[in-house]
Every structure is written in C-alpha cells, then in structure tokens.
Amino acid sequence: MSIQNTTADQQGQPEVLLDLKNISLSFGGVKAITDISFDIYEGEVRAIIGPNGAGKSSMLNVINGFYHPQEGEIWFDGKQRTGMKPYEIAYQGIARTFQNIALFKGMSVLDNLMTGRFTHMNKNLFWQALWKGPAEQEEIINREFVEHIIDFLEIQAIRKTPVGRLPYGLQKRVELGRALAAQPKLLLLDEPMAGMNVEEKEDMCRFILDVNDTFGTTIALIEHDMGVVMDISDRVVVLDYGRKIGDGDPTAVRNDQTVIDAYLGVSH
Amino acid sequence: MFYRESGDFKKTYRDDSQTFPIKFDRRRYYVVMAIAFLVLPWFITDYIANAVMIPFLVWAIAALGLNILVGYCGQLSLGTGGFMAVGAYATYKLMTSFPGMDMFSVVLLSGFITAFVGMIFGLPSLRIKGFYLAVATLAAQFFLVWLLNKVPWFYNYSASGQITAPERSMFGIIITGPYASPVTGYLFCLILAIGLAWVARNLTRGRLGRSWMAIRDMDIAAEIIGVNPLMAKLSAFAVSSFFVGVAGSLFFSVYLGAAEVTEAFSINVSFAVLFMVIIGGLGSIFGSFVGAAFMVLMPVLLKNILVGGLGWPTDLAAHLEFIIVGALIVIFLIVEPHGLAQMARVLKEKLRLWPFPH
User: Fold this and answer.
1) Which residue has the higher pLDDT, A6 or B261?
2) Does domain A3-264 fall into CATH 3.40.50.300?
3) Predicted local confidence at residue A18, as pLDDT
C-alpha cells in the first residue's frame, strides 16, 4: 500500500533490514516460539498477526533484546547480533512502543520526547553540571528535532502537560512520538490501535503511514484490527501457537486456508 | 496580576527552557539572592547564624542530595547518615593531613570521596528495588558508622574517639575552628548551597536527569530507549552521595566543630533527611530547601514561642515540640502527599488565573 513498497518492487531485489532465522524461545518447559523465520525489508510496513498467545509480543521482545532466544540467528542491518542488552540495541536503531502504555508518567510530553533523543546526546556529567556551553547547545539542537516530531504528531498544545494527565489516545500518540524521536531504522509497534475509537484509529493509521513515507522508517506492527492490518501493511506474517503459519502480502494471507482455520477454528 | 505568562512570548528554545520562565519568579529569585548575600550578613546575629541559617543550609544540601536519589531516580535510600559521616571524616582526615589545603577544596574533595563510597553501596540497586533497596542501604548506614568508630586511624587515634575541626582559613578569613565567626560560616555554606542547587538543577533538566526520571517512572521503557540502567543508577548514587558528603563535611566542620560518629550521624539523621525530602516534595529542588526549612526552623520557632514567648519550662516545651512537629508532618502529608513544593505549584496555578478564575 505504501510508496516504499512500489519503489522496492522497482528495484527488484529489496534490501533486508532484519532477518530472523529459525528462532526458538522457551521459558522452562513452555515453548513460546518454535522455529520461526521471517525477514523485514527496508522501508516496508510488516504486520505480525495471530490469535491471543500466539507469541507475537514475545517475537517483538526477541527483536529488541528483552528475550534472548535459545536457538536461531538475528541479523540486523547486515550484522549478526548475539546477546545484546536492550539499551545497546536502542543504539543500533530499533525503537518500540508498548501494548500497555509505558510512558514516563511524571514527566511532561516534551521531556518524554527528549528522553527519546537519549541515544543522540552524549555530553558528559561535567558539561551537564555546567549547563552553559556544549550541554545547552546539544539540548537546543535536539529540542529542535523534537519540535518537528511534535508538529508532525499535532501535539503542540500539550507540549508541557505531564503525560499522566492526558487521555489514552493522546498517550499512545506521545509514545509513538517518543519512539520516533530516536530516529529509528526499525520501529516496532505493539498494538498501536488497541482500545481506540474509529477516529483515533484513523489518526494513528495516518501517522504510521506518514512516518513510513516521510521518514522512510521500516515498521513492524502487531495489531488485532484486521481491517487496519490489511489496509496499511505491505506484508503480513501470521503466528499461531508459537509457529509461523502464514507469510505474504495481505490478500494472499487473507485467503490462506490455514490462517482462516487458525482464526475461526476447525471442526475435529 | 503580575504573576502572568501571557504576553511574555519565548522566541528561542533557550528562553523557553530557563529555570524561572515567569518574569515575576525571576525577579523574586534575584531579590532573595540579594537579601541572602548583601543584607543578611550585616544584620544576622550569631544565634541566628549558628542555630538557624547554617543548619538550614547544611540540611538543605543533604536533602538536595537525597532528593536526586529518591525523588529523581526513585531509588530509596536510608544510608544518608552514613554517607554524611563519610563526608565528615574525609574532611577531618584532609584537614589534618594537609593543613595547607583551603577549605573549599577540602569540602569538595570530601564530596568526591563520599561519591565514590556511595557508588559502591549503590551497586545492590541494580538487583533490588523499592523497600528492599532501602534495607540494603540501611546496611551502609550501620556499616559505615561502625567502621568509622572502630578503626582509630579515621579519628587520628584521639582518646575520646571524637573528631575536632582545626582552624582553617581561606583568603585569610577563618572559616572553621573555635575563632570562626558564624557569619563567615553562613556565607561559606550559602555559596556552596547555591552552587550545588544550581548544579542539581542543571543535571536534572538535562540528559542525565531525564535518564534518572525515566528509570524512576518506567525502567523497562527507559532501557528500550537506550538508557543503561547501571550507568543511570550509579550516577544518581554518585551525584547524590557527593551532595550528602558535602553536607556532612559542612555539618562537621562549620556547624558542629566536633563530632562523634555514633551520635552525630546515627540512623536518625537518615530518617530526618528522608522526611525533609518527602515533606518538601520528591523530585523538586525548591522542595528540598522548603523541607529542610520546615524540619530545622519549626522546632526553633516552637522553642522560641513556647519558652521565650510563653515562659513554659524547657522540658515541657521540648516534649510539646516533638508532638507538634510530628502532628504537623502527618497533617501535611494528608493534605498534600506530594509535599510543600506541590502546594507551591498549586498556588502558582491558581495565581495565574487570579483574580478571575473563569
């Protein structure tokens, strides 16, 4: 659906940004993910869908380093990665939002977004204690970038409001903004439209597509609203009981018999 | 009427992020500074300087330090007394080992030594959180006091086990020792308190401060965004202990003059500083000062009213003092759990609209 997809098609061979090979993850005896492989192309919107407990969120947690899979390889941006901490992965250019909002409640919207710029700032304690000079300079440069995000997400009016006071829909938007502030190569969205009304969903879809278009950010998203998934994603991967049961463009997945069975159930 | 931000447009990000964005606040701050530096030293009596202003400033520095750790980084600590003791003993050792060193360097160096010790005791915070961390830091309190009491090297093998501040001066002005004038002590503490408050403000509004608050509010999300929890927590412990160490150093050298570790830096000190932070307001620099003022000034005020004003016997007044201060703490916490700083904030919000609330 997005422009990126067509350009990728024109180039013929799309660039692979993230490649997951035979990932298996288990907690004790419980197998959360079994032998799943899929890839994410540069600049696409990739949806991960599946019934509850299919292992979608575990998959995202594997991608951004919360869980370390027992088996399998993860290749990001042409490099294999092993045993990295989540904060190191943030420096590689992966950002995410959470299923239940994980904003910094005590801080203002602006501060939340500025925290998103953390990986782009590096002045040490001494300069920060002094403030005047390099630290202030750095702060202003990053503030300027954050203001672009604020304009983009249309949250100018709530810039200085503590996020705890904002309604749910806006909090979701601020969380997206915080992830965007990090200028990620790969943006992971865990149910960005959960609990929203139609209007808010439309807004969110618009933002996701705009992010993909204007910043060229690659997006991987988990979502339960099938209409949304089919509309905005370029390719869809379907999980069920920790296994991959479908992969391809939305129409192919929609007509796949195993996928339909997984969602609707089959008579035995 | 004049407490307005309307019409005061900020044209640069620098202007927008200043500490006092409202003109009235800014002017009031300058007035307070001018009074503290230019007016008070001329009118202050020795009693006021010794019993009110110096302890207020010293406790304010300690509260500031603990507020960075508890209020900004969300790591509960009950080791403040122990860290203050480290600051005090570091000062003593520096003063006696290097008699030529000026007082300013002594105090700052003591701060750095305490920061190092604080970082070591901050290590458990990576594994334990909340109340359990408080218990772990309690160990720091008891261990440090025990160590400083047990090893005679720390108090230069003096027979009484006490440490006494020798006379030290700076630019020819005596700051410590029996002949130091309370006014110089006051000014010395004032300069340090204001300098450190400025540093605290700078740290908390920048990248480091945001990483602390991120860890406090949602440590998982903070890690996802690139904050290394180890660095954030240890830096909070280091900076906090630096402040507390400076406070301990001043407490011993300028305020007390002589100290015995089990008495001056007991667990009560840790609790007192924690109360200051909670009453003043967690995560507020202004709150640290207000909290310290409340805990230091209230007993003095009550004593003056009850003993000086009403002529009651001292022991009765002392007991009543405890009762009244305790009750006030409870009342304040019920009325405004977020501390006096929050009260000030609410007042400001109201003032913005005054006198037309609609």
Assistant:
1) B261
2) yes
3) 92
Whether the model pTM is above 0.80: yes
Q: Are A33 and A25 in contact (CB under 8 A)?
A: yes
Smallest Cβ–Cβ distance between A106 and the set B211, B217, B235 belongs to B217
> Given the structure tokens 């990665």, which residue do they identify?
A81
**Rounded (10°) CA dihedral B271, B273, B279, B285:** -150
B171, two tokens = 């630019």
Q: How many CB atoms lie within 10 A of CB A51?
A: 14
Cβ-proximal residues to B270 (8 Å cutoff; 6+ apart), any chain: B77, B78, B79, B80, B81, B82, B138, B141
Tell whether the model's pLDDT for residue B358 goes beyond 70: no
pLDDT of res. B174 = 81
With 0-12 / 13-18 / 19 or more C-beta atoms within 10 angstroms meaning exposed / middle / buried, residue B112 is: middle
Q: What distance in Å separates residue A247's CA from the closest CA in chain B? A: 28
At residue B303, does pLDDT exceed 80? yes
pLDDT at B82: 95
Inspect the interface and report whether the beta carbons of B226 and A90 lie closer than 8 Å: yes
DSSP single-letter state for residue A69: -
- CB proximity B283 to A under 8 Å: yes
A268: Cα separation from own chain's centroid:
37
Does any domain span residue B216? Answer: yes
pLDDT at A3: 43
Please report the pLDDT score of residue B2 as a whole number: 61
3-state SS class at B174: strand
Could you state, in order of their start, the residue ranges of all structural domains in chain A?
Answer: 3-264
∠ Cα A133 A137 A143 (to 5°): 150
Q: What is the pLDDT of residues A229-253, one digit of tens each?
A: 999 999 999 999 889 998 999 999 8
The C-alpha atoms of residue A66 and residue A84 are separated, in whole angstroms, by 9
Question: Tokens in use for A72?
Answer: 């399998």
Count up the domains in chain B and report the number: 1
- When CB atoms are compared, the residue of B202, B214, B218 closest to A128 is B202
Residue with tokens 């905005």: A232
Q: Which CATH number goes with the domain that contains B300?
A: 1.10.3470
Q: What are phi and psi of A136, to 5 degrees?
A: -65, -40
State whether residue B235 sits within 8 Å of chain A by CB: yes
Q: Which residues of A touch B235 (CB under 8 A)?
A: 125
Range of the domain at B128: 44-353
DSSP helix/strand/coil, A220: strand
